[in-house]
Amino acid sequence: MAFIRQAPLLRCLPLVVLCVLTPTLIQTIHQDAMFTASMICHYEAEQKKADCSDRGLDSIPQNLPDDIKVLDVTRNNITFILSTSFQRYPLIQVLDLSLNDIRMIESESFYPLKELNHLILSFNPNLVLPATDLFRGSKNLSTLDLIQCNLKLLPNDTLKWSPSVENINLMINRLTFVNMSLCGRLSFVDLSSNEIEHLTAESFIFGCQSDYIDLSRNPIKSVDPNVIASLSARSLSFGSYPLSLEVLKDIYSGICRSEKVGLAIIYSNFTVLPLDFFRNCSLTFLTLSGNGIQSLSPYVFSNLTRLVELHLSQNNIVTVEPIFFQGMRELKVLNLDNNKIKYINPNSDVWALDLNVLYLCTNSLTEISEFAFLGLRNLTLLDLRFNKDLIVLNITSFSELTEIQTIDLNQCSMSTFHPVAPNLTTLSMNNMNIPSTYTTPRIFLKDSQGIKDLEIRKSSLSTADIWDKTVNVSLFDGLSKLITLDLSDNSFDIRFPDIFPARIFEQLAALQKLGLETCHISGLHPLAFSGLESLRVLNLRGNMIQQLNFEIFKMLDQVTIINLDGNLLTYLDEQLFSNNPRLTTLLLSNNRFTRLNQTTFEPIKSSLLSLDFSLNPFSCNCDIRWFRDWMSGHIFVIDEDKTLCSLASLEPLRGKPLLNFDTSKLCGLNVVLVCLTPLAGIIVVVIVVVLYHNRWQLKQKLFLFKLMAIGYKEMRDARDYKDYEFDLNIIFYDDDEEWVRQQLRPALEERLPQFQRNVFGDQDLIPGMHYLDAVDYVVSHSYKTLILLSRAAVHDRWFMLKIRTAMDHVSDTETEFVVVVFLEDIPDEEIPFLARLYLSDGRPYLHWTEDVRGHDFFWNKLVKNLTINLRTNDLIPNE
Ligand SMILES: *[C@@H]1O[C@H](CO)[C@@H](O)[C@H](O)[C@H]1NC(C)=O
Ligand SMILES: *[C@@H]1O[C@H](CO)[C@@H](O)[C@H](O)[C@H]1NC(C)=O
Ligand SMILES: *[C@@H]1O[C@H](CO)[C@@H](O)[C@H](O)[C@H]1NC(C)=O
Ligand SMILES: *[C@@H]1O[C@H](CO)[C@@H](O)[C@H](O)[C@H]1NC(C)=O
Ligand SMILES: *[C@@H]1O[C@H](CO)[C@@H](O)[C@H](O)[C@H]1NC(C)=O
Ligand SMILES: *[C@@H]1O[C@H](CO)[C@@H](O)[C@H](O)[C@H]1NC(C)=O
Ligand SMILES: *[C@@H]1O[C@H](CO)[C@@H](O)[C@H](O)[C@H]1NC(C)=O
Ligand SMILES: *[C@@H]1O[C@H](CO)[C@@H](O)[C@H](O)[C@H]1NC(C)=O
Ligand SMILES: *[C@@H]1O[C@H](CO)[C@@H](O)[C@H](O)[C@H]1NC(C)=O
Ligand SMILES: *[C@@H]1O[C@H](CO)[C@@H](O)[C@H](O)[C@H]1NC(C)=O
Predict the structure, then answer these.
(1) Which DSSP category does 178 fall into?
(2) Signal peptide location in the record (predicted)?
(3) Ligand 2 atom 9, closest CA
(4) Which of 51, 670, 717, 751 qualifies as a FRET site for 686, CA 20 to 30 Å off?
(5) Residue 744 has what DSSP assignment?
């Protein structure tokens, strides 16, 4: 059966497929037509760029616009370039021919390209360049890339015609011979990874002025010092290949016979530095990294009197002594990163250096005595990161590090640190690995009061480490110049759960940025931030704060950014931001807010520019209507699409973006008060007084008039009260029983004698049934339900549940069987959302009045409302 029923569909299938595919087919054919007719390439008219990469081309396409400036034909199958290939495109400036298999280039191929600036021929593995004058026409060539082309031969004086070449990259070829005697001023020549064995006058002729020539990864076997000396290059690089001491000596000796400034000999198995290796020389920059040097000898660098930077990183040096560097008068930067240094100045000698920067990262230092840097009076930066076993660094007044400005101790293991460094401005002690879980770094900064930047992130600090509560002293006392302080990722609370104490930051009058991210803070003392009169940025992200005292931000009158993302906040006090008139950014995402009070935001409404309230369980109801309206204003809402209404929201809003909340539809129109002129005001008052006095007569007249004029034209529910089990169901709060007894019962008996089967409140519910079931039963089986609202009633949860049940039935049955009576005036903000929603939809409601003149009108209207059932109509108000 199933198959037979499907059969017609199956028969239709090809047709359906055809219908679906036809537009695609047409489109495809259309595109193909475009390809073949004009070009297979993508053309960007604005840049005049033709992108023909990866198109399976076997020659340069000849159907491109002839004014192209950029031509990209990488990743094709081009094997030859002819002298006619570029004749059509004289304006090409950038030509990329890489990743083809070009084997042959006719020598006049590039002649038409007078503007050629950038030529890339890299990764053509069988490339052979023509012997003569390939670039004769390319006077403006500035970059030539010939990487990995297996080039065995570079034609003599290839660059003779191109005085503007700046970069030529010949990396990874098979050149053994170079003859470039004529060329312009090159900034960078990369000849690394070739097969050059001899740097001699026969095989290496290089007359170009250049900044830097990279000759590393060449199996250099012999060097003529005169060739090195005659190279007019400022810096040379050798290595990444084991070089013999002979070669190294010849290189160095050549360097010293010229005015070269930079030399790098890296990874060339230069394990021992012979004592007389360095002669007096003009070198200012020397790198000997990665050579496995194990030890240095006294005075080994002494002839390098003009050297400014010495890099000895990635060797195996164990001991560093001042005497190694004796005489290096100009040395400013010494880099000893990534060695195995365990001892620094073990004999407490005096450094006769004017060093500014000393890098000692990633070594094996454990203890640095107070005399280790004796004499380095001008040292400003000391980098000791990643000395994972460094536990002692004594910087005392004897250390003479008077100019030290920056000390980096990240990833060290200091348990105590008390620097006496008056000019210290930047101190980092992040990720300290204190070996024992019971010790935390004991830091004293009272002799380094110039600090401006202090970072102690993720170093197991506890509150006790920054606040000595026995004497009320803070680690930060006296740091009146501190501008940024980052204490993030320390679990302040974990060991001794307590609120974050007062006054820790009291003396930090200059502090602008305070980071307390993920610090396990669960509570803050109201005076925790006192004294921070310059604070701009406060980051408390990712803590466990549940509540904020209304005075917590009172001192922060300069604050512009407060980040409280990822805490456990549920409510913000109305006065929280009363003294933060410069706040521009407030981040409160991922907390537990269900509601907000408009008053809280009044003081910062005009300054605030962006706001993040995403990932909070807002219950969207008319109470936060203002918030929704505010969000849709000028303010920038971060993660707007993640600012959602929770499941506790009104039905249509649950799980939806708060911004979708159509407040005017769900909460009635916002009454905008238009300023009246005083005169109009007076007239209105007079009219109101007159009308008010006669209001009941007027209302009665209007009501009768309405009955007469329009009758009951509304859509009446066809069912009669007799069709129901009960006539009238009255829902009221216990306290209102007296009103029911004294007013309602007599009036109903008099005016609606036909209603005999009435349910008055809970006592008439069907016994034996579950309470809510009984409520539900009565509501659904009554012709009318009357709800009596009073201030006490709306605060009762059970009462509201009953209203909800009734409302649900109104929606379900689409019958207007509920009538609401206000027994007293209820202030707007107290009216529960549910009731407000009901009213705003134009559903029937009446106001009871104590004024006896109004009673007649009230009962007439009630009786009318109780004797008919209209169909609900959400479009036209019923009243
Ligand atoms: C290039 O040509 C070779 C052989 O001629 C062929 O196998 C290959 O698929 C072609 N590559 C492209 C991208 O057309
Ligand atoms: C040469 O190239 C530069 C840009 O590098 C350009 O400004 C200049 O106009 C070009 N000159 C010629 C003659 O093409
Ligand atoms: C370069 O010049 C030398 C000497 O004149 C010559 O022997 C050699 O053939 C030339 N090489 C090329 C590729 O022209
Ligand atoms: C280098 O090239 C120039 C010009 O092509 C030539 O005169 C010279 O002999 C060549 N030198 C060597 C060593 O090949
Ligand atoms: C490195 O140099 C040492 C002696 O200095 C030598 O014994 C060793 O063979 C060299 N290693 C290589 C790879 O050249
Ligand atoms: C310094 O250079 C001189 C020659 O200029 C040389 O004799 C001496 O050995 C060198 N000293 C060192 C320590 O290398
Ligand atoms: C530190 O620098 C000053 C100024 O450049 C200089 O006069 C002084 O000699 C230097 N001190 C040392 C120990 O080199
Ligand atoms: C250096 O630091 C260690 C450990 O903190 C301490 O015991 C020692 O007394 C200090 N030495 C000096 C000279 O300050
Ligand atoms: C360093 O501190 C001393 C006082 O200890 C002061 O005289 C000197 O000027 C400071 N130097 C700098 C660069 O601030
Ligand atoms: C908002 O705060 C004001 C001022 O404290 C208070 O009167 C009002 O009841 C609060 N409103 C809500 C909805 O909490």
Answers:
(1) E
(2) 1-19
(3) 115
(4) 670
(5) I
Query: Which among 136, 154, 179, 203 is the best mutation to test ligand 4's pocket, defined by most ligand atoms within 8 Å of the CB?
Result: 179
Token pair recorded at residue 616 = 């909070």
Rounded distance, CA 756 to CA 874, Å? 31
Q: Which residues pair with 212 in a beta bridge?
A: 188, 235
What is the overall mean pLDDT for the chain? 85
* Residue with CA at minimum distance from ligand 4 atom 5: 156
610 within ligand 1 shell (Cβ under 6 A): no
- pLDDT category at 871 given cuts 50, 70, 90 is low
Burial label, 80 (beta-carbon count in 10 A; 0-12, 13-18, 19+): middle
Is the pLDDT at 819 greater than 50, yes or no? yes
pTM of the model: 0.71
Is the model's pLDDT at 701 over the cut of 70?
A: no
- Angstrom CA distances, 294 to 60, 157, 189, 751, stand at 56, 44, 32, 112
- Neighbouring C-beta atoms of residue 695, cutoff 10 Å: 16
What spacing in Å lies between the alpha carbon of 165 and ligand 3's midpoint? 22
Distances (CA, A) of 561 to 536, 558, 582, 586: 6, 9, 9, 6
In short, whether 439's Cβ falls inside 6 Å of ligand 9 is no
End-to-end CA distance of the chain: give it in Å, rounded. 57
- Which of helix, strand or coil describes residue 636? strand
Please indicate whether residue 56, judged by its CB atom, sits closer than 6 Å to ligand 1. yes
Predicted confidence (pLDDT) per residue in 395-447, tens digit: 998 998 999 999 999 999 888 899 999 999 999 999 988 765 555 568 899 99
- Check if 422 has its Cβ closer than 6 Å to any atom of ligand 9: yes
182 lines ligand 4 (CB under 6 A): no
Ligand nearest to the CA of 425: 9
pLDDT score, position 554: 94
Tokens encoding 718:
């066809």
Tell the residue number behind the tokens 């007359």, with chain if given.
207
Residues with Cβ within 8 Å of 86's Cβ and at least 6 positions away in sequence, in order, are 60, 92, 95, 109, 110, 112, 113
- Asked if residues 125 and 101 have their Cβ atoms less than 8 Å apart, the reply is yes
